[in-house]
């Protein structure tokens, strides 16, 4: 089911540190409402930097990011935060926040000034907790949760934000294979436009409607997984020998060259 979704386009996006060489260069991609894009590439390729450009974390030095055709930098940070939820690997740490508090933080972009939480804020937070099956953990301290539970809480916070687009950086990091599959299944079921980085190419192929391959700051392919995930492209991007397995359309095994 498609809920609130948005289309995103990046056109020639280039970013690097002040006075430094660009880290990502000439990134053009298009994500339709309801698509799930997985960005894959080796360590240091620039995946997190591309995400930062897409969620208004940094302003591209060249090129433009558009949400439903509108320049992301022509809307304020608050509106951007209402429309785009970001799930990063950093977490609220050891501060004494309960799970409910953390999920409630997703409502901050919707709050009017320093007003108290509204009934809608409470209801949306409760719905996000229920959807992620976190009701029994609502009063637990966030820092006491397991990695998989924390990841679910951060996704619930994103959902409480009622965004049209969810951007995630390595949501399956540190999770065992069951929890990796669970998190990706859950994200699929949200019915939102999703852009995520993923290290596991086989998981990306199963999860994503579209894949973008990044190597040395440039896209080497962007499109349907069956078209983009070729042994040649993967071997070249990751500097390994990738071979396609007989099972499934795009299952790969890897070895050093
Ligand atoms: N603000 C910055 N200033 C200088 N260099 C930076 C900055 N941000 C990122 N880099 C460098 O740019 C390169 C790409 O970083 P980025 O985190 O985007 O890669 P990545 O593909 O997400 O890597 P990984 O898979 O290891 O998480 C790295 O070499 C990183 O050190």
Q: Mean pLDDT score, rounded?
A: 92
H/E element order: EEEHEEHEHHHEHEHEEHHEE
Give the uncertain stretches in residue-range form: none
Helix content bin: 25-40%
Structural class: alpha/beta
**Quaternary structure classification:** single chain
Q: What's the total helix number?
A: 9
What compounds sit in this structure? adenosine-5'-triphosphate
- Rg, Å, rounded: 19 Å
Relative strand content: 15-25%
Apparent shape: globular
Major sheet: arrangement of strands:
6-7-8-3-9-10
| Biggest sheet features | 6 strands, mixed
Distance between the termini: 43 Å
Organism: Rhizobium calliandrae
Protein name: ABC transporter ATP-binding protein
Pfam family, one: ABC_tran
Family: Belongs to the ABC transporter superfamily.
Reconstruct the topology from this structure.
Blueprint: E1 8-15, E2 24-31, E3 36-40, H1 47-54, E4 62-67, E5 70-71, H2 77-83, E6 84-87, H3 99-104, H4 119-131, H5 147-160, E7 165-169, H6 177-189, E8 193-197, H7 201-207, E9 210-215, E10 218-223, H8 225-228, H9 231-238, E11 241-244, E12 252-255
Parallel strand pairs: 3-8, 3-9, 6-7, 7-8
Antiparallel strand pairs: 1-2, 1-4, 4-5, 9-10, 11-12
Bound molecules: adenosine-5'-triphosphate.
Adenosine-5'-triphosphate binds next to helix 1.
């Amino acid at each position: 089911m498609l809920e609130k979704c948005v289309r995103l386009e990046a056109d020639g996006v280039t970013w690097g540190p002040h006075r430094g060489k660009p880290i990502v260069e000439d990134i053009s991609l298009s994500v339709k409402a309801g698509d799930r894009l997985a960005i894959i590439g080796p360590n240091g390729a620039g995946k997190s930097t591309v995400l930062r450009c897409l969620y208004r974390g940094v302003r591209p030095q060249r090129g433009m990011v558009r949400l439903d055709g509108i320049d992301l930098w022509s809307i304020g940070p608050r509106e951007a935060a209402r429309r785009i939820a970001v799930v990063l690997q950093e977490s609220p740490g050891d501060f004494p926040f309960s799970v409910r508090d953390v999920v409630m933080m997703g409502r901050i972009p919707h709050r009017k000034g320093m007003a108290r939480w509204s009934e809608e804020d409470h209801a949306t937070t409760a719905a996000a907790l229920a959807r992620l099956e976190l009701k029994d953990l609502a009063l637990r301290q966030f820092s006491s949760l397991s990695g998989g539970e924390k990841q679910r809480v951060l996704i619930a916070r994103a959902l409480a934000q009622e965004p049209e687009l969810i951007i995630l950086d390595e949501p399956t990091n540190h999770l065992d294979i069951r929890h990796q599959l669970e998190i990706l299944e859950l994200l699929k079921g949200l019915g939102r436009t999703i852009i995520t980085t993923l290290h596991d190419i086989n998981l990306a192929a199963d999860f994503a409607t579209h894949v973008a391959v990044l190597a040395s700051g440039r896209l080497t392919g962007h499109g349907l997984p069956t078209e983009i995930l070729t042994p040649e492209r993967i071997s070249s991007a990751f500097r390994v020998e990738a071979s396609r397995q007989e099972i499934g359309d795009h299952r790969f095994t890897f070895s050093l060259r």
